[in-house]
């Protein structure tokens, strides 16, 4: 299963990312600033083969194209 999760750097988005990865899914985590999320960094180290972190601010319409291209 492939999953896209926005707001994955903290809170509910980060927890959903953890749950999806633990379930065996491939996850694209969309965040505004990946450097600000130590939790996401930890997951990237553990699940490097199934986690892709994409930097995008979805308040910017052009960011949707960037996420779709990724």
Structure notes:
It is a single chain. By secondary structure, the chain is α/β, with parallel strands linked by helices. The chain has helices at about 10-20, 40-45, 60-70, and strands at about 1-5, 25-30, 50-55. The protein has a three-stranded parallel sheet with strand order 1-2-3, with helices on one face. α1 links the parallel β1 and β2. It is globular and about 30 Å long. About 20% of the residues are buried. The model has no long low-confidence stretch (mean pLDDT about 90).
How large is the radius of gyration? 11 Å
Percent helix: 40-55%
Which regions contain 5 or more consecutive residues with pLDDT less than 50? Answer: none
Strand content: 15-25%
Order of helices and strands: EHEHEH
Reported for the largest beta sheet, the result is:
3 strands, parallel
Strand order of the largest sheet: 1-2-3
What's the β-strand tally?
3
Q: What average pLDDT do the residues reach?
A: 92
Oligomer: single chain
Structural class: alpha/beta
Gap between N and C termini, in Å?
A: 16 Å
């Amino acid at each position: 299963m492939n999953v896209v999760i926005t707001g994955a750097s903290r809170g509910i988005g980060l927890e959903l990312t953890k749950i999806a990865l633990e379930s065996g899914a491939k996850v694209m985590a969309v965040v505004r600033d990946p450097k600000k999320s130590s939790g996401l960094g930890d997951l990237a180290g553990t699940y490097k083969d199934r986690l892709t972190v994409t930097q995008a601010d979805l308040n910017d319409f052009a960011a949707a194209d960037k996420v779709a291209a990724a």
